[in-house]
Amino acid sequence: EAQVTQNPRYLITVTGKKLTVTCSQNMNHEYMSWYRQDPGLGLRQIYYSMNVEVTDKGDVPEGYKVSRKEKRNFPLILESPSPNQTSLYFCASSLRGNSYEQYFGPGTRLTVT
Amino acid sequence: KQEVTQIPAALSVPEGENLVLNCSFTDSAIYNLQWFRQDPGKGLTSLLLIQSSQREQTSGRLNASLDKSSGRSTLYIAASQPGDSATYLCAAPNSGGYQKVTFGTGTKLQVIP
Q: Which residue in chain A is spatially nearest to B52 when comparing CA positions?
């Protein structure tokens, strides 16, 4: 089954404790992206990747890191999480860039205390 | 920078009614526009991807149109059902060589039996 998977689905952590949210797709898509969703603000793009070793900032990249060492994986790294990063995070992929249909993962709900 | 607006933020209709959801965008140099559905606490499900050359795209009771010149897209839902209750989001890509995607804040639809 073609899908985008994220892990963990739920995470509660404390300020400053480094964490990684994994994202994997099995559709051989070149484009992958991370979003956060907050009430009243909608979905905002954090980072995206056009292909392996090619990443670029979205609209809200501060406090996040990403890497794309393999085509199928695109982890989101929070080196020193803060309470304002409490949010619902989504990973998405598309065949090739933002002009193609995007497929979303199920989301990761992160709480930073 | 692309800005996407969805009005109204919430809509309540009786079952069986036909309805139209609106999406406006500022950067008209887009290749496509995508409509999603999001159920509470869930991820995003792609409904329709309408290419700039198509003007309209249909899937079952859903019909999406795109008018680049006016910066508008509409999602038409025919014969609404309680199962259509969800938040509907539109997303438009940024142009100018930037592979970003901008989402609207969504319209929360409630279909009353």
A: A99
pLDDT for position B28: 85
With an 8 Å Cβ cutoff, are B43 and A105 in contact?
A: yes
Residue of B nearest to A88 (CA): B41
Q: Are A61 and A46 in contact (CB under 8 A)?
A: yes
Beta-bridge partners for A21? A76
A18-27, A102-111, B28-37: least confident range:
B28-37
Inter-chain contact B103–A44, Cβ cutoff 8 Å? yes
| CB-CB neighbours of B78 under 10 Å | 13
Q: Residues in chain B, how many? A: 113
Q: Which residues of B touch A105 (CB under 8 A)?
A: 43
